[in-house]
Structure of Phospho-2-dehydro-3-deoxyheptonate aldolase:
Amino acid sequence: MHSTDDIRINGARPLITPWVLAEELPLGETAAATVTGGRRQAEAILSGEDPRVVAIVGPCSVHDPRALLDFAAQLQAACAPLADAVLPILRVYFEKPRTVVGWKGLINDPDLDGSFHINRGLHLARRVLLEVAELGLPAASEFLDTTLGQYYAELVSFGAIGARTVESQIHRELASGLSMPVGFKNGTNGQVDVAIDAIRSARHGHWFASLTKEGTPAILESSGNPHGYLILRGGRETGPNYTPAAVRAAATALARADLPAALIVDCSHGNSEKDPRRQAQVMSSLCEQIQGGEQAIRGVMLESHLREGRQDVVPGRELVYGQSITDACLSLADTVPLLEQLAAAVRMARS
């Protein structure tokens, strides 16, 4: 007999179920209040009911939970005086989309050595989100794998669909059933229309295959997500798209699609041309636009960590504490003045 099944699968391991993980690491009342409050506040800001601006701030990806929690506590303290103008949401990204290959994130490879202890990664991810929520700080995360969200989605206040997956039908279906507001990034080439199509698709109900909390394969029916928003992140072909002309064009395109003219601008990625220090230039432009009366800018994103820059993972060499191992980040010390600048712009525009 000729073998036709799994001819390129070299092994298999049992995967913990979402229900068992949630029983081991349950969501408490304080954390649940943080998550729910973060969702409601973000929805109010992005829909224009609340005049503040959302600021999604944190490392490119999580590789050291201890450093992330240290960052979270410092960010929360720094943002306390800005609460009337800025809602801070911690960027907590566990999955790293790769153009070709590379480290895939804390869930897939928590030991940073290619051992892929995914069950351990899921425990770490859920625990860190619980601890962030216990601090009282809402969290944002990108949903890359369409099944892993079942393990921690109830701890996330803002979801994101990335530039590489925004055209994916299964990610649009996933977003239609998520319980939080979701941002859709423009495509890697800079095209905004694919993200607008994704927002429109996610507003509708869908039937799609997934897992239940018990880990059983199932066909789920979603009701549609009315809180989908466009994230401008620049692109390879279009270049940066945070300028006044780009922001206005994106807002017009949203209105033309009968969608709320509400934008989140990513100060990193294509808009900073991969130079973390250029995030300051992007923020300055956004603040000028806000002060000038641009109401479409409802949120910003900043890639920031305790230390500036990035580092490689080298076997046998200790990692620098609080420095990214993926995209280079701005230091928290340099990030706080940008958030203060943003708050000042919001206050001035509101007055």
User: Anything to note?
Assistant: The CA atoms of residues 266 and 301 lie 4 Å apart. DSSP finds nine helices and eleven strands in the chain. The chain has one domain: 18-350.
